[in-house]
Amino acid sequence: MTYLAKPRLHHPTLTKNKVGYTRRDYEGPVSTLCAGCGHDSISAAIIQACWELDIEPHRVAKLSGIGCSSKAPTYFLGASHGFNTVHGRMPSVLTGANLANRELMYLGVSGDGDSASIGLGQFANAMRRGVNMAYIVMNNGVYGLTKGQFSATADRGSKSKKGVINTDSPVDLVGIALQLGATYVARSFSGDKAQLVPLIKGALAHGGAAFIDVISPCVTFNNHAGSTKSYEYVRQHDESVSVIDFITPGQETATQHAPGEVLEVEQHDGSVLRLRKLHADYDPTDRYAAMSYMNSHAARGEVVTGLLYLDPLPTDLHTSLNTAARPLNTLGVQQLCPGASALDKINAALR
Amino acid sequence: MKPIEAINDFVIKFANINGSGSASANELFAKAVMRMGVPVSPRNIFPSNIQGMPTWYEARVCEKGYHGRRGGVDMMVAMNPQTWDADVAEIEPGGYLFYDSTRPIPESRFRKDITVIGVPLTEITNATYTDPRQRQLFKNIIYVGALSVLLGMDASVFEKLFAEQFKGKERLLASNLQAINLGRDYIKQHIAYPLGLQVRKSDKIGDQIFTDGNSAMALGCVYGGATVAAWYPITPSSSVPENFQKYCDKFRVDESTGQHNFAIVQAEDELASIGMAIGAGWNGARAFTATSGAGISLMTEFIGLAYFAEIPVTLINIQRGGPSTGMPTRTQQSDLLSCAYASHGDTKHVMLFPQDPHECFEHAAAALDLADRLQTPIFVMSDLDIGMNQRLCKPFVWDDARAYDRGKVMTAADLEAGKDFGRYNDVDGDGIPWRTYPGTHPTKGSYFTRGTSKDAYARYSERGPDYIYNMERLLKKFKTAANLVPQPIVHKAAEPTRIGAIYFGSTTPAMREALDVLDEDGIHVDGMRLLAYPFPKSVETFLAEHDTVFVVEQNRDAQMRTLLINELDANPKQLTKVLHYDGTPITARFIVSAIAAKLALLKETV
């Protein structure tokens, strides 16, 4: 029913952010996903994060692949350009879009089937290249639109709604992102908005390849006993490494904490991620330690969440390619065409 | 057998081993002939291999300026023992065989009806050079020197060429000249010369340039304003993006900042290549990818998305032999159908057919304009014959007053002024809607792009009428395209005739010669060269004006003929196939004999 516009009744008391938008200005049409779907909670977190970050909605480009998760961008940031691409290939389209205009913010939204099954290659290569984007996977371990088949992130031994046991090893997107050089890697849970909103804000402000794997239970096909992606299972096994506050540049940061308890990391734009540590031995700035930590906890069946790795001064694909500061899509014949006299010289050299 | 006698009109073929450095020596020979004012069209015939396999360089010397492959070999330079027997057998009766006579070859492996010239090349090189690589490289230069005396070519041509090539590298200049003279001196002292084949000074080159289609295509992309290129290596297209990189490094680096006004990504596969090009096109940059048949197959889902979501993107297809891996280093025109109708559902795509490097440059720049104007994928259909061989052609031309046609783009000012924006709304009656770049305006002009059906305002819709509206509008847009693409060119026969021939792309040079030969033989055939698909009205007119039309193409299934029948409702009986698809470039001799034979047959049946 997305062709029905959501009523645009704005309550006059709705708070406006620094750029003059209310939270509702970041919404889209009414969601057509199932009631209780984790994806809708993630959409709400994205809306909250963008509003709090004072982002102008039209300066965001949202791109997705195919699947329930990839439908979600319709339901937030209605004033942004969006692109529902083909299954598993959103990363390449986002990469090309980013090359064309480095001044917009790029939000990639995908699912576990879209990124870990059909699109594993594109997911991996976008991470390798360090595309400046916030890449969110709404991970429920199951294909929703085609009614309940396992995806590649389903854990071995987990049970489908029809009672089939998954015998394949799961793809760990966080592990892959860490290994392939993503500079901001997090995992969260759609049911934990307090954790998810600052993680999304940090990712949007990051300036490099930022990846968030969000466990997002499918209420229709994967929320039963025997599933490792159900609300109940994730709540019981969620091991958060820290509590995160996102502090925008210039905001008061002076709070008292015992030494070693808090880690503050400043990103390139001056924003600060304050991590109140829940696991004393966890260092989110050490990529290899993070990989090892994730592996050992995954083996115990724990779902480790939080900001898992952060390089506060990332480089991106534009850095590697040394592209001009001015967006390529604004360049005209003046900047791009070498002209007739240069062509005469080329002709002369070919005689 | 009387030896062949010909001035400025013969075919010389060099049989070499790849990786032996023969390519530059053979090119030197071709350039030397051209410096004498005589046109040459060389072709590399090479294997999918890096070292040790047979490779050939066939150069047609032709004062009349026919650049197509003629067929037949008048002189063979047999430098590869592996292919000796086949190479010797290929020489025309009365032709010439040039070989390295250092080691004796049994009498039985020669022919009686040809002239044999043996030069102890290995012996000469080994006596002069000690370094193994030098021995290998200079052996090639020595045979060029020997040939130059046999064919009556002046030493001064080489002196001038070397002086240009090795400017500032005096040692290389001296050693190359020494090698040329070793060859020249040996002939003068030991062999009866000149031969019946001769190169004489002429003035048929004019201002023409000598270059390959792939680098011309890359240059066209630079001039046409492409800023984003994404590609995956595949023969024979890889040298398009590689040359694009080379030209961008030269022309697109900002002098003050050192930063690049371009972005080139070697993607992980062809799916990602086209995905990136589409993403960039969606976001308002001019983008292209270059590939060959197998790559097109991989890209087809994305091509359908770009067609239906109406995103500008340029695809350069350097065709090779298919199906599957086919003949990766041989030429064909066999991707017409797979490109014209690429992707699932009802799709049709614009294709351009350049005939030579000059047109590769023109069409690459035109494709970037057309993609923006039509908001759809544009295919530039080159092939290995044009792409990887150097060809004499008209010089590149650019008018500094030319602006890029960015098509229908609504700006923030337009939106602010209250212009109604419906992304898929046909407001101008040409089937082409308006678009906005992402980020244009805070509250107006944003839309959600998708491959699923939608209404004229880009809102998701599965309603039949909305779907039909868009599909019919796309057809209207395709009709508009027929008048925007480069138009066909008619080549009238010497006398009025009801017989016609349709051809395109790399078949053109051989066809031009074949039509002349047929005219001389009293068989008059009007030619129509197609430069693009969809077909404009003039193609229907040409069909109406001729009773029999030969469709000459380089594939097995007569793909262009299929397109003509399918798109114009042409009568299949009127369209006669002339097909050449063994992987070698089509020849005028083949076309002449095929058309003559088919016409004779038609007369019998009448």
Can you describe what's shown?
The complex is a heterodimer of chains A (351) and B (606). Chain A is of the alpha/beta class and 351 residues long. Chain A has a single domain, classed as Rossmann fold (3-Layer(aba) Sandwich). In chain A, the strands form 3 sheets. An 8-stranded mixed sheet of chain A has the order 2-1-3-4-8-7-13-9, with helices on both faces. In chain A, helix 1 packs across helix 7 and helix 3 packs parallel to helix 5. The model of chain A has no long low-confidence stretch (mean pLDDT 92). Chain B has 606 residues and is of the alpha/beta class. Chain B folds into 4 domains: 193 residues, Pyruvate-ferredoxin Oxidoreductase, domain 3 (3-Layer(aba) Sandwich), CATH 3.40.920; 183 residues, Rossmann fold (3-Layer(aba) Sandwich); 73 residues, no CATH class; 117 residues, Rossmann fold. In chain B, the strands form 5 sheets. In chain B, strands 11-10-12-13-15-14-21 form a 7-stranded mixed sheet, sandwiched between helices. In chain B, strands 3-4-2-5-6-7 form a 6-stranded mixed sheet. In chain B, strands 18-20-19-22-23 form a 5-stranded mixed sheet, sandwiched between helices. Chain B is globular. The chains are: A alpha/beta (351), B alpha/beta (606). At the A-B interface, strand 2, helix 3, helix 5, helix 10 and helix 11 of A face strand 9, helix 7, strand 11, helix 9 and helix 10 of B.
Low-pLDDT runs of chain A: none
Average pLDDT metric of chain A:
92
Distance between the termini of chain A: 65 Å
CATH class of the largest domain in chain B: Alpha Beta
Biggest sheet: strand arrangement of chain A: 2-1-3-4-8-7-13-9
User: What's the helical proportion of residues of chain B?
Assistant: 25-40%
CATH fold name of chain A = Rossmann fold
CATH architecture of chain A: 3-Layer(aba) Sandwich
Q: Helicity range of the residues of chain A? A: 25-40%
Coarse shape of chain A: globular
Q: How confident overall, as mean pLDDT of chain B?
A: 96
Q: Major sheet of chain A, described briefly?
A: 8 strands, mixed
Number of domains of chain A: 1
